[in-house]
Amino acid sequence: MEEKPTYQELEDRLRSMENVFQSYKQMAEPWREARKRFYSLSNRTQDGIYNYNLSIHKYVYTNPSFIKMFGHPCKDIVTTDSAFERIHPEDRHKLQRKIEASMLGQKEGDEAEYRCISSDGSIRWLHDRWIVLRNEQDVPTAIEGIVRDVTDMKDMISIRDYLESLLNSCMDAIIVTNEKGGITFANKGAEELFHLDRSDIIGSFIGEIIRNNVEGLQNIYQFLLKQAPVSNYECEAKLLNGAKVPLLISSAFLRDGKGKSMGIISYMRDISVRKQAEEHIRMLSQQLIRSQEVERSSIARDLHDHLAQNLYSLNIQLAAFMKSIAPPAGESEDHAKRIMDSLQNIMGDVRKMVFNIHPTSLDTLGLTNTIHNLCKNLSQLYDLEIDFKTAGMESLELNFDVKIAIYRLVQEGLNNIAKHAQAAKATVRLVNSFPKIILRIEDNGRGFDVGSIMETGTRNGSLGIWSMKERVAVLNGAMIIRSREPVGTRILVEIPYEQERPYASECGG
Prior knowledge:
The protein is α+β, with helices and mostly antiparallel strands.
């Protein structure tokens, strides 16, 4: 017969059980806290979390976000595989194959992207990552996973790809630099312009791609940083391969939603072909102007040598005829005097015409004296006060192209003032400021809208300003017109003169 435990033994057993229970409580408490934290996080996360039991083919756990992704409410979603039925029909087979591959231990089956049809009929893109749980016999028992709604990310990627496609379709180079000048984006146009792969461009400092300074600044990035936003700025860029390329640059700051600068976006266009065309046009214009001056010189010479001489001879003959008339001549003498006066006026007009067509005094008197005579004649002709001063021009030896261009600019400018400005006074300044000649023509007239005149001048027949700009462009110069109603107008011309131009002798008087 089994002996009954004593009271002491029972008490010891009870204490032992109490100790085991306390140990269990101490061990279970962290687990309960961990479980509590898990559910707290699981209920708050935007990602869907699930556990799918493979033996009963049911979801045994899903968090609220998972239920929301697959449609809400869905009362039996944790006990049936109805969630799988919400997957887009075209994606179900692909997902099934991935899961099967994962269950077979193939690593490529651990994640998938698929479309899900929500209860409202909308289609959402989901990214699903899972692990297969196995028992001791390595048999799959469950699938645990996290599902993330990537619809917005897909949309952003689609927009990004679309914008990148647009940028790459642009033939101009488009470059984005960060706040330190590092290139963060370059399109295909940049590859073609710089003759580099985008992998070599992106990450590089822009000053390493365009290797010369611009406007005296340390590098191209310093220029962009200082000038942005800038539109249609022309500069010559020295590339990594040593080539020099004329560029047309436009740039602007990239800013975030708070207005903070994120870098600079720059558009760069190779204008080599345009520059060649402009140079060709300039040379043709120069030849045309030179031919016009040669023709004018020939006409002026013919007028002087033939018409003027014939008129002079006729005047002498008429004077001799008058002396031969025996007094009293009466009305015949008066008539002859009127004819002589008319001849004198005609001869004066011919001299003015010859001077206007081709100022032969450019070769004999020089540029400044010829312009001085022009100002004097126009002042008398139009009753206009003209103040002409010059500085540093006497020592210059200019070729005929430059001299005749400056003369024509002054002539055209003063004629425009006399005909259109309603001015009482005009000022002309001609200064040698190496390496340029600076010409300034001002008036105190009524002024005009420069933009309107430049736009409509050719239609209205007002070619004076256009003619001046063309002459300046032929000499690689620059012309700035400032006018304000009713204050007056200022025309500033800068002409480089360090380069001699060929064939100048053709236009000589």
